[in-house]
Amino acid sequence: MRRVVITGMGALTPLGNNAGTFIQNIRSGVSGADLIRAFDTHHFKTKFACELKNFDAGAVLDKSEVRKFDLFTQYALVAVQEAMEQASLPLDKINKSRAGVIWGSGNGGLLSFEQEVTAFANGDGKPRFSPYFIPRIIVDIAAGVISMKYGFNGVNFATVAACATSNTAIIEAFNYIKWNKADVIITGGSEAPVAASSIGGFNASKALSTNNEHYKTASRPFDVTRDGFVLGEGAGALVLEELSFAQQRGAVILAEIVGGGMAADAYHLTGMSPNGEGAYLGMKLALEEAGIEPSAIDYLNAHATSTPAGDSSELNAIERVFGHNNNLSVSATKSMTGHLLGAAGAVESIICIAALQHNFVPPTINTHTIESDFENKFHFPMGKSENKELKYAMNNTFGFGGHVATTIFKKYSEQ
């Protein structure tokens, strides 16, 4: 079987506009939440989110690209550029028909759609739409634009699985390389959902926290007082390569991906089944593909969005897979980043890879009282990161519609 490794990472997040700053803030337990600046929230139940800080697309993209592309595509290009610089791929020497892009977004150009339709509704009825309107909003455009930038002629498509989107993209990239259909793939996800329609829609479904007085600590996964998730935005990018392909060009290998499990909860439009059936299946399938027992997992980055039902469902599934295991470190990094929706899986994969590289477990912040049914069943690092020798890390993501995607990363060794 062809082994698949990671050689590049790029991050654009509420905790930093590059991977290094992002991981440093994750280790320090920093909250990315603040009052929303993107629009006037006076009439909204939720007035805060985890927005990007000091993002300047013009520093990386030229003016024509900024004009043509929605923020979710801009975010993708910035994160991918960082990942590609780290991977140091010799673009003039590789077979570009064996190089592809699999990129995901749950919403695509939501903000562009909102702006164009609002302008039409407020106008005189004449259709004065931008010629870039459709390319700005369609979900696949980021994957297409990335391939154009780097000249990759291989497999190219977008994944959509709500909040499991970018983990699904990573699993598909893993599969295509494993199946010998590609040697290198840029993968990940991006999301730019901080808009009136998004906040209003999630408020209507009662999914968002409304803790406006204590917004810095509103995302509190597993806590008995949690009241909903905090919206985030950004992008995470990975460069995946077949092992011998990476070795032959002398690439620095960051980690290995060894398993992926995709399943469906098949239960509810927006909620998870109480026993976490889909989550259980996703983790089980990922472990089977990796060829390891549950006890081999040292760290689990939980989906844990800070919703009352969702967190309990996932913990039930984790208990079904791992039993009562105090050696398993479980943390919820959305307590710091907020929920990046379709980009969450990629950003949290970067956290897992960095944890493997540097032997630390990221913390869950803001959480003080874990539900009594689970507080003694696993190890929950709180407030600050902990040093721990890690070999395997698991990353869970679940999405509206019952979508499930779980990945397993391994500390790289030649054996």
Can you give me a brief rundown of this structure?
The protein is α/β, with parallel strands linked by helices and 415 residues long. 33% of the residues lie in helices and 18% in strands. It is globular.
CATH-derived architecture of the largest domain:
3-Layer(aba) Sandwich
Instruction: Give the distance, in angstroms, between the N- and C-terminal Cα atoms.
Output: 13 Å
Structural class: alpha/beta
Shape label: globular
What top-tier CATH class of the largest domain fits best? Alpha Beta
Strand content: 15-25%
Side by side, the strands of the main sheet go 5-4-6-7-1-8-14-13-9-10
CATH superfamily of the largest domain, by name, is Thiolase/Chalcone synthase
Q: Helix coverage percent of residues?
A: 25-40%
Radius of gyration: 20 Å
Strand count, sense and barrel status of the largest sheet are: 10 strands, mixed
Uncertain segments: none
The count of strands amounts to 14
Reading the helices and strands in chain order gives EHEEHHEHHHEHEHEHEHEHEHHEEEE
How many structural domains?
Answer: 2
Number of helices: 13
Instruction: Kindly identify the CATH topology of the largest domain.
Output: Peroxisomal Thiolase, Chain A, domain 1
* Mean of pLDDT: 96
What attributes characterize this protein structure?
Peroxisomal Thiolase, Chain A, domain 1, two-stranded antiparallel sheet, 2 domains, 13 helices, 14 strands, 415 residues, globular, alpha/beta
Describe this structure in words.
By secondary structure, the chain is an alpha/beta fold. It is 33% helix and 18% strand. The chain folds into 2 domains: 4-248, Thiolase/Chalcone synthase (Peroxisomal Thiolase, Chain A, domain 1, 3-Layer(aba) Sandwich); 259-410, Peroxisomal Thiolase, Chain A, domain 1. It contains 13 helices and 14 strands. Strands 5-4-6-7-1-8-14-13-9-10 form a 10-stranded mixed beta sheet, with helices on both faces. Strands 2-3 form a two-stranded antiparallel ribbon. Strand 9 (299-301), helix 11 (308-322) and strand 10 (329-331) form a beta-alpha-beta unit. The two termini are 13 Å apart. The mean pLDDT is 96.
